[in-house]
Amino acid sequence: MKNKIKNISYKYQTIFIFLAGCMASLGFAPQNIFIFTIISFCYALVILEKTQKKKQAFILGLTFGLGHQVSSLYWIAISFDIANYGGYIFGALAVIFLSIFLSLITATSFFLIKIFSNKLNNISSAVLIIIIFSLSDWVRGNILWEFPWTPISAIWTFSKLTISPFAILGSWGYSLITFSLIVGIYFFKHNVKQGFLMVFPFIFFLFLGALPVKKYIGESSRINIRLVQPNIEQSDKWNIKKLDEHLKKLINLSNIKSLKKIDLVIWPETSVPFDIEKSNKQLRESLTNVNNLIVGAIRKTETVDKLKIFNSLFLIKDSFKSIQYHDKLKLVPFGEFIPFRKYLKFKKFTLGGIDFSYGEQVKVLELNSNVKILPLICYEVIFPKITREKSNHYNLIVNITNDGWYGKSSGPYQHLALAKIRAVQEGKFLLRAANTGVSAIINYEGKVIEKIGLGRKGIIDKELVLIKKNTMYSKFGDNIFLFLIILLFFLLIFININYKWVNKHE
Fold first, then answer.
1. Interatomic CA distance for residues 492 and 128, integer angstroms
2. Going by DSSP bridges, is the β-strand pair 448-452/439-442 parallel, antiparallel, or unpaired?
């Protein structure tokens, strides 16, 4: 009878922890109900503490992670339907397999916590949980082809105050102090003083992030920009019969007269279907009021035995007298290339049987002597480490993207939130042009100054003064996270040595 009651209890416990994982996703954009994420993780720790067996801890971690990942990443399935690549059935399978893979990391963290600290009721356990959760968050974002989409720190993008610590800690360091906050709240039921000790780092870095920091304005670094969002349906985007219509829409929006001379017009990712370097007569003749243009397009290189294609961003200057380009460095698995293609024999849904090629290096594009641009294509915006070595060489970030693949889901809003994080980390203006999604001007403090909403067509004209803000993250990068992890390891060792010494001399 007792075993039967235990089995029923464990069954409901599994259901509740799955629902808690689902609730954790509500802390991310667009809901931004961060308290739900914190409560969900605290509940998971309560259940973990009551769990006796390590195997059960692993299963509970897997279940919690699965609820969290499926609820956060469901929007990926929409792209399979829009791309006509197996529809929602294949899309759902892709989300489930990805979520299981990511959830195995969560399951391993629960398992390790149970191995090294069974009772979870002392300061040593608290430090251990923070270390393991922080490292598991980092591993999820950096394993294999890297997918740092939902670090727990992304729940803090909703206000100027809460987003400010990204300028110091970056995503992973901020995740660490977020886990410290969660563990502190959980620990209030055991020891109020220790709970406050764990909560303090979060409060400290909020205060530190809010302090004024020196800003720089370069000489003559004023620029009038225009962002163009054509809102072309993704299902129609590559329809051969409508390509001229789509291009005309972009041209007409770009040629709208402005009160001030526009220095730079920005179009979204893959705006045009042809090779800009080889075929640009139509644009030259049609863009009568545009002197400088950023446009996303496909770039091709061809040798005797090999064709390479690149997802590229072009900066066209002085009415097509000069063209610079950046090739995308971070490609989307299964969207721009098929991992292990030669073994899986899959056809790619974007460009038949050809994978995109990786760009070779980061390129800073020069509009003029006072305006240097860091080009980022799509989700390159979530990889600050690939461009950190050039952080002092540019004063403006341009992110072109196409979130039309994901419909009216949370995906485009999550992408925007991650772009806000990047602007804060760099301490620079970020201009975001989307085919549809949310085109926006984001300042160095993560504030969206102006935007065009999801599913809308339009332009944004704005005069900007390119202010650069000093940030610790742009200087030290993720070394700050590494330092905090090492510090916690030494703290854990010290606590355990001190505990053994005290017990020995009692």
1. 7
2. antiparallel
- Give yes or no: 308 in active site: no
Catalytic residue among 269, 336, 380, 445: 269
Q: How far apart are the first and last CA of the chain?
A: 44
Work out the average pLDDT over 407-427.
96
> 379-404 pLDDT, tens per residue?
999 999 888 778 778 999 999 999 99
Strand partners, 440: 432, 451
Q: Residue 254 corresponds to which tokens in the numbers above?
A: 């770009």
pLDDT in tens, 199-242: 999 999 999 999 988 888 766 689 999 999 999 988 888 888 89
Name the active-site residue from 114, 237, 328, 428. 328
Which positions ≥6 away from 241 have C-beta within 8 Å?
A: none
Chain-centroid distance of CA 58 in Å reads 27
Residue 148 · residue 142 · CB < 8 Å: yes
* DSSP, res 444: T
Euclidean distance between CA atoms 83 and 73, whole angstroms: 17
* Residue 378: active-site member: yes
Collapsing DSSP states into helix, strand and coil, what is residue 183?
A: helix
Catalytic, 2? Answer no
The tens digit of pLDDT for each residue in 91-104 reads 999 999 999 999 99
Kindly provide the residue ranges of all beta strands, DSSP E only, lying in 264-333, ordered along the sequence: 264-266, 293-302, 307-317, 322-327
Catalytic residue among 336, 378, 451, 468: 378
Q: Read off the tokens for 376.
A: 């980022």
According to the model, what pLDDT value does residue 392 have? 78
